[in-house]
Design brief:
The chain has three domains: about 1-95, Rossmann fold; about 100-310, Mur-like, catalytic domain (UDP-N-acetylmuramoyl-L-alanine:D-glutamate ligase, 3-Layer(aba) Sandwich), CATH 3.40.1190.10; about 320-460, Mur ligase, C-terminal domain (Protein-Tyrosine Phosphatase, Chain A). The longest helix has 16 residues, at about 280-295. Helix 10 (about 335-350) packs parallel to helix 11 (about 375-380) and helix 11 crosses helix 12 (about 405-415). With about 475 residues, it is α/β, with parallel strands linked by helices. A ten-stranded mixed beta sheet has the order 8-7-9-6-12-13-14-15-16-17, sandwiched between helices. The protein has a six-stranded mixed beta sheet with strand order 18-19-23-20-21-22, sandwiched between helices. Strands 3-2-1-4-5 form a five-stranded parallel beta sheet, sandwiched between helices. The protein is built from 14 helices and 23 strands.
């Protein structure tokens, strides 16, 4: 089958291309501004990419076109797909057809923790010999990939609340019917497509409605809003959390060398004691959700205890890049103020003797807006020094709605913290080098590449071939 992918260089679309290629399909694709690492990955898979969108890219006519959600209706190639009535699917529809198929899906949704929780479930299934398929929004280090086809009966999916495609504005996660679902949290995000929290809530209510009567949702029970939303839904719910009024409780949590020790109670009875090779109580919650899902599909606690320590994490999630000239460099995807706060708290707990330097780039469609102007000021309380750059592409936001990095720095200074504003990454890097001290831990936070700040900083500190 000849399958053509529009927007093939997106993380999810490139993964789908690899899945389809592995299944024996003839895969082609097109995108704009094709560059590594995705172009290199696809080239290694033997998948030809057309640079730029043109109707002639669809000649000869493919059997199926998959349309990524970055593609707008006015895209010339999309217009040709519609004009010639070519069979087409969205990314999640294609994943459901070609990856999930007649297998059982385990879907992780929520504002925070989706990627780590999805990867944890996939690793636990794999380590127990259950040969899962999966699709996750980051590179799972255990597999050095963000997808796996597998032959087992379970497929683990990261359930994205972002819209599906220009022809389907529903959240991506509505396209799966999960045997088990996870709802990690509900907060406002994605301001470019959701005007307010009410619409976000409606999206997650839709997700809950996709779980069949024989399935189950594991939901974070410590959050009142999650309880409220789940309480209005008819999906079978089991809550997890740290409070005592949940079915799955994490207790006796304390840091250990390289991670966290914790005990799990099921319905108030000790179920098992575990070590997670990640720091932070938020990651204990992610692991607790994953363990509960594994129990839901029949795994036993003793077997899970043996394999959980083998989890290697996700690239760019509290990822230690290395130590250079006495300075430890770490990278994280955190961008929402809640994620920034819990990440800094976890790193502070894990490295209590180091000065914690936070470099932050507010580059998402939400963080470029002033919605979180005040919450960001509280999110950096565990950092000793904060460096913030001007949001990139700020022109995309109406002036009255724009986030102000200058104001954030002023607010941080007013609260007694040391903080600096920079108009761009080049000057922020100069500031990092000027203010560095031996023994620092520099945590770089962005959901993008921050103009290659991690590599540039490490090289400036003496790192080679990064």
């Amino acid at each position: 089958m000849h399958i053509h992918l529009l927007g093939i260089c997106g993380t999810g679309m490139a993964a789908l291309a690899g899945i389809l290629k592995e299944q024996g399909h003839h895969v082609t694709g097109s995108d704009e501004h094709v560059y590594p690492p995705m172009s290199t990955l696809l080239e290694g898979l033997g998948i030809p990419i057309q640079n730029g969108y043109r109707p002639e890219n669809l000649t000869p006519a493919p059997d199926l076109v998959v349309v990524g959600n970055v593609i707008r209706r006015e895209n010339p190639e999309a217009q040709a797909v519609l004009a010639h009535n070519l069979p087409h699917l969205s990314l999640p529809e294609a994943l459901n057809r070609f990856l999930v198929g007649d297998r059982q899906s385990l879907v992780v949704a929520g504002t925070h923790g989706k990627t780590t929780t999805t990867a944890l479930i996939a690793w636990l299934l794999f380590a127990l010999g259950l040969d899962p398929g999966f699709m996750v929004g980051g590179i799972a280090k255990n597999f050095q990939a963000n997808y796996r086809v597998g032959r087992g009966r379970f497929v683990v999916m990261e359930g994205d609340e972002y819209d599906t495609a220009f022809f389907d504005k529903r959240p991506k996660f509505v396209h799966f019917t999960p045997r088990a679902g996870v709802l990690t949290s509900i907060e406002y995000d994605h301001a470019d497509i959701y005007p307010d929290l009410t619409r976000i809530i409606q999206a997650f209510e839709t997700f809950l409605g996709t779980v069949p009567a024989g399935g189950r949702v594991l939901a974070w029970g410590d959050a009142p809003l999650v309880r409220e939303v789940c309480g209005r839904n008819h999906a079978p719910i089991s809550y997890y959390g740290m409070n005592s009024d949940v079915a799955w409780q994490a207790t006796a949590i304390h840091p250990a060398q390289g991670g966290m020790n914790f005990t799990v109670l099921k319905e108030g009875t000790r179920w098992g004691k575990f070590f997670l090779p990640m720091v932070g109580e938020h990651n204990v919650l992610n692991a607790l959700a994953a363990l509960a899902v594994l129990a839901e599909v029949g795994a036993e606690p003793l077997a899970l205890k043996e394999v959980l320590p083998g989890f290697q994490g996700i690239k760019k999630r509290q990822e230690v890049v290395g130590e250079f000239d006495g300075i430890l460099v770490m990278e994280d995807f955190a961008h929402h103020p809640t994620a920034v706060g819990v990440t800094l708290a976890a790193v502070r707990q894990a490295y209590p003797t180091r000065r914690l330097v936070a470099a932050f780039e507010p580059r998402t469609n939400t963080s470029r807006r002033k919605i979180f102007q005040e919450p960001y000021a509280a999110a950096f309380k565990d950092a000793d020094l904060i460096l913030v750059r001007e949001p990139p592409d700020l022109w995309k936001v109406e002036p009255e709605e724009q986030f102000s990095s200058r104001q954030l720095v002023a607010d941080l200074k007013a609260s007694g913290q040391e903080a600096f504003y920079f108009p761009d990454t080049d000057q922020l890097l100069t500031g990092l080098l000027q203010h560095r001290r031996a023994g620092d831990l520099v945590l770089i936070m962005s959901n993008g590449d921050f103009n290659h700040l991690v590599r540039r900083l490490c090289e400036a500190l003496g790192g080679k071939n990064l």
